[in-house]
Amino acid sequence: MTSVGAHVAPRRFALRLPRVQLTPYLLLVPVGLLFASLFGAFAILGRYSVSHGAATDAHGYTLNQYRELWSVRYDRTSLTNSLEIAAWVTGLGILLAYPLAIQLVRSRRRALLIAVILIPVLLDVLIRSYGCVMLLGPSGVVPRSLRFLGLGSPELLFNKTGIVIALLNELLPFMVVPIFISLASVEGTVLEAAALLGAGRRQTFLRILLPLSAPGLIAGAVIVFALAYSALAVPLFLGGDRVATVAILIKQQMVELLNFPLGAAVAVLVGVVMVVALLAAQRLVVRIFFAHYSA
Questions:
Q1: Domains in the chain and their CATH numbers?
Q2: pTM of the full predicted structure?
Q3: pLDDT 10s digits, 155-178
């Protein structure tokens, strides 16, 4: 007589491995390829910047290009002019962006105001540049309005002032939107608590809104500084040959003179300035806001 257990099939124990979700990693592939191409291009520029020769003929190693950037007056002026213009555009952008961002947070017609602010970004850079030339030229609307108000007849074209005004008009949305996003994330109860504790508008802005919007301020300032420092079309149309900038210098060396090593050295230096500006802005904002207000 056979037992019941003899007819039961033996159990098979399968080794179950945890499932690996590949979808998130596959989604990162396009971004990884983009960053790899950017770093690869920067590495190629770095190789050209320390090489001898002209055009695409790169051989040997030398630092003569970097020495020339500081020894030649035109090259040195291009670097300082771009730095000055970018600093002015960033500073004025911060002063103008906070009132606009606060108004966006409070307004009920937020979508309409955002669309109006983003109009300069939607237009082509050539259209914006030509429009600024017509507005700031000797017979433009702005100089005629200033003369009508008795404020004189300032020259706003082919100088740094015109470039700063045009870049500020073009890049202000890149400062307003990040600050607006940071301010919109502030809970209304925080502002109500500040009002109940007797804080005025000035104290509320300096001690609550400004520190809490620091991430948006850092993002906007870095984006505006980078775009203003490396701008080409606006300085080319509104500055002409009178205002030298790094973008114009790179164009002259690489396109007109086929001096790839010097043009690559300027491009590498611009990239280094961007990284230093990002780190400096982040450390400065963190030190001023978080360290000061947490003490």
A1: 79-259+266-294 (1.10.3720.10)
A2: 0.81
A3: 888 889 999 999 999 999 999 999
